[in-house]
């Protein structure tokens, strides 16, 4: 029914539910609720979206929830993320991006109840296509959640229509999720669950071609606990060691994303430290506000014209606050690369002979591939199995990994015998000389080049004939005059 009176609508009942763990944040959701999740790189938007997809899969079970990821797809990084946030569910499906037609076909095939698209930019859909997709999902009774990137200025990329057409808009910043807009009644904010970085027991069952990327005896395996942790450092000492120019850098130093802990006089237990920075209009002027939070509760704030001035005020009152560093990654961030190496040497960590010999070999190798419809070879990111256009995203290998890599390439090509796939191992340096090649070119229609026409010498221009007509006429007149005179 497209036309309904206000009194009838006020008494009509709609299906709604509160999602467990997100009751206050999201409010009462409907089967057709749509959401827009955006934030800067590394803020935690994909992690939050994946965990939300897991909770929706638990609610809609046995109905399917599909997480389309044009950025990561079915890859090792996505596997790590699933294990960290414990998003294992039989009815939660992860998919690569194969275009809009395949996208809609997969949704219809699985009879999905909710769909996530991470991210809108990588799907290459324009605003009209996105608006049509939103309408199609709503008519089909399917939830649609769109993940979006942020710009350098702090807003989201793309058309403003994205945020207007959805029911919920969530902003993810430095590991925190904030409600920017919510028609479902949700309020407040919540922390992103980044999970445990130590849950990697699933790696024991990986294939040999993945294990070869971190072989035993490699330099990474030898560098275990090079710095004694835990140790403490005050906020003032941290500010002296580093140039802190924004809140993102400050939160990375206090390790808010992975859990940084402090101990205040009020509590004998560890508490979580973080900072939140905003720019607001106050008395007609833009002002900067920096808040210091402990266990997500504001303990102190500073208001001034810039971030630097706000941070100086926070330091005056809280410079003696002690921060506890508990893991090696955080220690390296806080100490810096040079100091970290000094601590490593002071601890007396030595590399095994095999690892030391391998570390002297600085030569890197890359994998290239070419299909019959391609004119040239392109480098590959082996973790995702995709060709890349930028060399910085290609996988690099060392000399001791080449034999296992060759076997892996032979297997790959044998599976694609009729595809005409050719794979190469090349030096990563200048020239990129081919070291190894496997595969045969497929049948392609070769365009015959037209035969060049034989070159002919240009003809020399013929000399112009002189016009003697006027001279001949005069001679004839002279002869007639002479003949008449003789007579």
Brief account:
The protein is of the alpha+beta class.
Can you describe what's shown?
The chain folds into 3 domains: 7-191, Rossmann fold (3-Layer(aba) Sandwich); 231-346, no CATH class; 362-438, no CATH class. The protein is extended, with a radius of gyration of 35 Å. The longest helix is centred in the C-terminal third of the chain and has 18 residues, at 469-486. Helix content is 32%, strand content 23%. It has 487 residues and is an alpha+beta fold. The strands form 4 sheets. An 8-stranded mixed beta sheet has the order 5-4-6-7-3-8-9-10, with helices on both faces. The protein has a 6-stranded antiparallel beta sheet with strand order 11-16-12-13-14-15, with helices on both faces. Helix 13 packs across helix 14 (337-346).
Helix percentage range = 25-40%
Q: According to CATH, what is the topology of the largest domain?
A: Rossmann fold
Contiguous uncertain segments of 5+ residues: 197-223, 257-268, 353-358
CATH architecture classification of the largest domain? 3-Layer(aba) Sandwich
Total tally of structural domains: 3
Strand content: 15-25%
DSSP E strands, number? 21
SSE layout:
Elements (H helix, E strand, L loop, with lengths): L5 H6 L5 E2 L4 H4 L1 E2 L4 E6 L5 H16 L3 E5 L7 H9 L7 E4 L4 H11 L1 E7 L8 H14 L2 E7 L11 H5 L2 E6 L2 E7 L6 E3 L16 H4 L7 H4 L8 E4 H7 L5 H7 L7 E2 L8 E12 L2 E10 L2 E8 L2 H12 L3 E4 L2 H8 L1 H10 L6 H8 L4 E6 L7 E4 L4 E2 L14 H14 L6 E6 L6 E5 L30 H18 L1
Parallel strand pairs: 3-7, 3-8, 4-5, 4-6, 6-7
Antiparallel strand pairs: 1-2, 8-9, 9-10, 11-16, 12-13, 12-16, 13-14, 14-15, 17-18, 17-20, 18-19, 20-21
Helix pairs in contact: 13-14
């Amino acid at each position: 029914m497209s036309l309904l009176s206000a009194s009838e609508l006020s008494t009509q009942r709609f299906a709604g539910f509160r999602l467990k763990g997100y009751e206050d944040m999201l409010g009462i959701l409907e089967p057709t609720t749509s959401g827009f999740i955006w934030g800067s790189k590394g803020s935690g938007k994909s992690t939050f979206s994946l965990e939300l997809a897991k909770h929706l899969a638990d609610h809609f079970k046995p109905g399917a929830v599909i997480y389309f990821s044009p950025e990561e797809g079915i890859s090792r990084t996505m596997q790590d993320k699933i294990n960290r946030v414990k998003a294992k569910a039989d009815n939660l499906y992860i998919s690569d991006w194969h275009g809009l037609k395949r996208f809609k076909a997969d949704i219809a095939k699985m009879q999905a109840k909710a769909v996530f698209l991470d991210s809108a930019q990588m799907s290459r859909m324009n605003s009209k296509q996105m608006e049509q997709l939103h309408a199609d999902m709503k008519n089909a009774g399917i939830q649609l959640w769109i993940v979006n990137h942020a710009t350098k200025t702090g807003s989201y990329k793309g058309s403003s229509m994205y945020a207007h057409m959805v029911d919920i808009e969530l902003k993810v910043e430095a590991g925190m999720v904030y409600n920017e807009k919510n028609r479902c009644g949700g309020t407040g904010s919540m922390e992103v669950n980044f999970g445990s970085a130590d849950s990697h027991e699933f790696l024991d069952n990986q294939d040999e071609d993945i294990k070869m990327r971190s072989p035993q005896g490699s330099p990474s395996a030898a560098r275990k606990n090079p710095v004694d942790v835990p140790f403490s450092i005050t906020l003032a000492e941290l500010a002296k060691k580093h140039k802190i120019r924004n809140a993102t850098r400050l939160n990375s130093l206090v390790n808010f994303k992975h859990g940084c802990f402090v101990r205040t006089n009020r509590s004998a237990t560890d508490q979580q430290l973080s900072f939140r920075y905003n720019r607001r209009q106050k008395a007609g002027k833009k002002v900067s506000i920096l808040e210091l939070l402990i266990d997500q509760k504001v303990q102190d704030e500073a208001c001034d014209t810039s971030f630097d001035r706000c941070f100086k005020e926070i330091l005056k009152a809280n410079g003696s606050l002690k921060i506890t560093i508990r893991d090696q990654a955080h220690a390296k961030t806080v100490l810096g690369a040079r100091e970290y190496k000094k601590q490593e040497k002071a601890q007396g960590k030595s590399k095994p002979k095999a690892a030391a010999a391998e570390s002297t070999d600085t030569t890197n190798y890359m994998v290239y591939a070419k299909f019959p419809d391609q004119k040239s070879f392109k480098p590959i990111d082996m973790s995702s199995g995709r060709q890349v256009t930028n060399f910085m995203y290609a996988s690099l290998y060392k000399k001791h990994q080449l034999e296992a890599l060759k076997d892996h390439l032979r297997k790959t090509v044998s599976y694609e015998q009729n595809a005409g796939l050719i794979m190469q191992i090349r030096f990563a340096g200048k020239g990129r000389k081919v070291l190894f090649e496997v595969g045969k070119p497929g049948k392609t229609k070769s365009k015959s080049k037209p035969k060049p026409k034989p070159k002919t010498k240009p003809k020399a221009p013929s000399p112009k004939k002189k016009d003697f007509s006027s001279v001949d006429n005069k001679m004839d007149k002279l002869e007639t005059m002479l003949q008449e005179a003789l007579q």
